[in-house]
Design brief:
alpha/beta; Nucleotidyltransferase, domain 5; 2 domains; 6-stranded mixed β-sheet; 5-stranded mixed β-sheet; 11 strands; globular
Length: about 260
């Protein structure tokens, strides 16, 4: 079995694969100062509660956008699973031709998403939209060229900015809205977050299709924690919440580990 972990700014999103099957997934808050023992005890307990022997874990694959915690995670894997983890990053095989000016700048989570999508939908042009702490667009050609992308604040960052930088605007729950023009402050914030992001999604997706694919077919994939919020808005052709974990699992095979 393979333990996969996507270490984000807010959460560690992980899962256990048995071959190609994702048996279960988990989330844990990312903290700057967590220890290898803290994570090891958490993972051991998680496996035990899901009736999986920790000795059944044969490999670990991870990607991280938080460099400071990679050392603790690697030590955790060595101490509790006797495994040196595969870390998706510069120098590993991905099957992608990365067209960034500096390919090392591309977040490893975005690379994992692209690896998964190009293997799941071979020969197709792709726009991958990942909803996390930041919302990211990744543009990939049918020839596996990682053409580039867009990064903008995620829903939670936008909400936190409103509540922390204003005197009277409250923190609200992020929800799907039915009414565009709201009749309370809380509902107005919710409408702005939802419909504002929806407008951004629609505009950027159509502009990418028009300017970079010139009318060719394009598959749009939604992933990440908040993707389900916009699932019924006819933006995505596919919604795949576990895309990054699938990409990590595939990356292990590509690198013959």
């Amino acid at each position: 079995m393979i333990l996969t972990m996507d270490v984000g700014n807010s959460q560690i999103f992980g899962g256990i694969f048995d071959g190609d099957k994702l048996k279960f997934r988990f989330r844990k808050a990312t903290k700057d100062n967590f220890t290898s023992d803290e994570l090891g005890v958490f993972l051991k307990g998680l496996l035990r509660e899901n009736e999986i022997d920790s000795k059944a874990i044969s490999q670990v694959a991870l990607c991280s956008v938080v460099p400071d915690v990679v050392h603790s995670i690697r030590n955790c894997c060595l101490k509790y699973f006797f495994i040196d983890p595969f870390i998706l990053g510069p120098g590993v095989k991905t099957g992608l031709n990365i067209l960034y000016k500096n390919p090392q700048e591309v977040g490893s989570d975005r690379i994992a998403n692209a690896v998964a999508a190009t293997n799941m939908f071979p020969g197709e042009n792709l726009i991958i939209i990942d909803f996390g702490t930041a919302n990211t667009f990744c543009v990939v050609s049918k020839n596996k060229e990682y053409m580039g992308g867009i990064i903008l604040p995620g829903l939670k960052i936008s909400l936190d900015a409103l509540s922390s930088k204003t005197a009277k605007l409250p923190t609200v729950e992020i929800v799907k809205c039915k009414e565009l023009v709201a009749r309370s402050t809380s509902e107005s914030i919710q409408s702005g977050l939802y419909f504002g992001n929806l407008a951004i999604l629609n505009y950027l997706t159509e502009k990418i299709k028009r300017e970079y694919f010139q009318g060719q077919p394009v598959k749009v994939i939604g992933t990440g924690g908040m993707a389900r919020l916009f699932e019924d808005e006819m933006i995505f052709d596919e919604t795949i919440p576990d895309l990054v974990l699938i990409g990590l699992n595939i990356s292990l095979l590509i690198n013959n580990l």
